[in-house]
Write a structure and sequence with these properties.
Structural class: mainly alpha
Number of helices: 19
Largest sheet: 2 strands, parallel
Strand content: under 5%
Order of helices and strands: HHHHHHHHHEHHEEHHHHHHHHE
Radius of gyration: 26 Å
CATH class of the largest domain: Mainly Alpha
Number of domains: 2
CATH architecture of the largest domain: Orthogonal Bundle
Distance between the termini: 53 Å
Shape: globular
Number of strands: 4
Strand order of the largest sheet: 1-4
Low-confidence stretches: none
Length: about 450
């Protein structure tokens, strides 16, 4: 301390001694408030990310257990339905009435599912009730047991987002809710699909089109890998992994002795544009169908009952349940045989019927998701257009598997990574080209309630 500071200290000491008790108390309160503000600023700047990352680790482990439980139950019920489709599919309307009644009685407000998650993430609403988790799990189990054409990712992401949001209320860091909600979504997707890199990318880019939620990157990564590992320990048979199914001549297709093969790149771009149209079309038609059925049948019980009867009839007419459930049966038909004969058992119209029945199932109020059916739609559509574009059948199916999903969710990096994680990272250049083209040609549509980033 120099002499000038010492003089200032003595001057302040004399002034403080001459103050009234009330003034001294006020000065002490101001000093305490300033200290609290500086402490909060320090914690927010230096400790919030480590603390939220540690919380995300626990969140990921919990979500991993829940997704393993949900996924195992879903596989059991799907196998039960496939063994006796004529016992279960005719009663789809009854299951739908039970789902609608249960939501009306016990889950009012939670029937909006992912729309509610996105509303909270965007600050339009402030609460996701915990009862959403058992409601959406039970509703999806019933949908699949009785043959509804739906997915499962919506459930997993809702489980993670709901837990992340409710845990975040215990922490008063800036953006804690958004960070843990994103981490929960990543954990849900990773726990169910066993694709942590794609899960991280999807959670970061799905909320706001054209923007990555990088503030949540580390917590989302930790939560995704934790959920993936824990769900592997408790769940069986949930992952779809097809690494090494392609022969070397396909994996080296886009390269020749002179570098990139421009002819193949152009063909892949055309293929990607077609996938973008299909994926974007799916999202748009789904939105229109939800609006149409909502206006035509305002009563949700009546809507799901009538829709359930129609879906049951269609499912039975078209090959007795071929298009029921997730659509993994179609994916298995494509990739379980020899790579040279990917069309074995696949019809040219498979993609369209799965497309239409999935939209009808979700639009009338059945529960689940859209992603796994989108995988099936993309893979079957890929086999349909492969020879037209001049791309080997199994490669076109694999590219469609990822790119149609990306186009329907309006995401770019997630489909690239899910393609690489499922089919092998040596195929990443092909997935890059196709997914870029699909993202460009999807018309900005999404099955989720994304915000659009406005560029001025």
């Amino acid at each position: 301390m120099n002499f000038r500071d010492f003089g200032k200290y003595n001057q302040f000491k004399e002034q403080f001694a001459g103050m009234s008790p009330e003034m001294k108390e006020q000065m002490m309160k101001m000093a305490k408030e300033q200290m609290k503000a500086k402490t909060r600023e320090f914690v927010q700047k230096w400790l919030s990310t480590p603390i939220l990352t540690a919380v995300a680790l626990v969140l990921g482990a919990i979500v991993g257990v829940l997704t393993a439980f949900f996924g195992s139950g879903l596989l059991y019920l799907s196998n039960l339905r496939d063994a006796h489709p004529l016992y279960w599919i005719p009663a789809l309307a009854i299951a739908g009435v039970l789902i609608a009644f249960a939501y009306k009685k016990f889950g009012k407000g939670t029937e909006r599912g992912m729309d509610m998650v996105f509303a909270v993430a965007h600050g339009k609403e402030d609460k996701i009730p915990l009862r959403l988790i058992p409601m959406v799990m039970a509703g999806t189990w019933l949908t699949h047991l009785f043959g509804g054409s739906a997915g499962r990712e919506g459930v997993a992401m809702q489980i993670g987002a709901t837990l992340g949001h409710n845990i975040s209320t215990k922490f008063h860091f800036e953006n804690a809710n958004r960070v843990l909600l994103v981490a929960g979504m990543a954990a849900g997707f990773a726990g169910l699909f066993q694709t942590p890199l794609a899960a991280i990318a999807l959670a970061l880019e799905v909320l706001l089109a054209g923007h990555l939620e990088l503030a949540a990157l580390l917590p989302a990564a930790v939560a995704a890998f934790a959920a993936c590992k824990v769900s592997q320990m408790f769940g069986e048979g949930m992952a779809i992994t097809m690494n090494g199914i392609f022969p070397d001549d396909i994996t080296r297709l886009i390269w020749n002795d002179y570098g990139l093969d421009i002819n193949i790149i152009l063909r892949l771009a055309i293929l990607g544009a077609l996938f973008g149209i299909v994926g974007g079309g799916f999202a748009k038609v789904l939105s229109l169908a939800k609006s149409f059925f909502g206006k035509k049948f305002p009563n949700p019980i009546k809507r799901i009952a009538i829709g359930g009867i129609a879906i049951s009839v269609l499912l039975l007419v078209f090959f007795q349940g071929r298009y029921a459930g997730l659509g993994t049966n179609l994916i298995d038909m494509i990739f379980s045989g020899s790579a040279a004969n990917a069309t074995n058992g696949i019809y040219a119209f498979d993609w369209f019927l799965k497309f239409a029945l999935t939209i009808l199932t979700i639009a009338v109020g059945f529960k689940g998701g859209e992603v796994t059916p989108l995988f099936a739609i993309g893979a079957t559509f890929g086999t349909f257009v492969a020879t037209m574009v001049g791309i080997p059948l199994p490669l076109a199916a694999a590219l469609g598997y990822a790119a149609v999903f990306g186009a329907a969710t309006n995401t770019l990096f997630a489909p690239m990574l899910i393609g690489a994680e499922v089919f092998g990272f040596d195929m990443l250049p092909a997935f890059f080209v196709v997914c870029v083209a699909a993202y460009t040609c999807n018309g900005g549509q999404s099955i989720y309630q994304q915000k659009k980033l406005r560029i001025r």
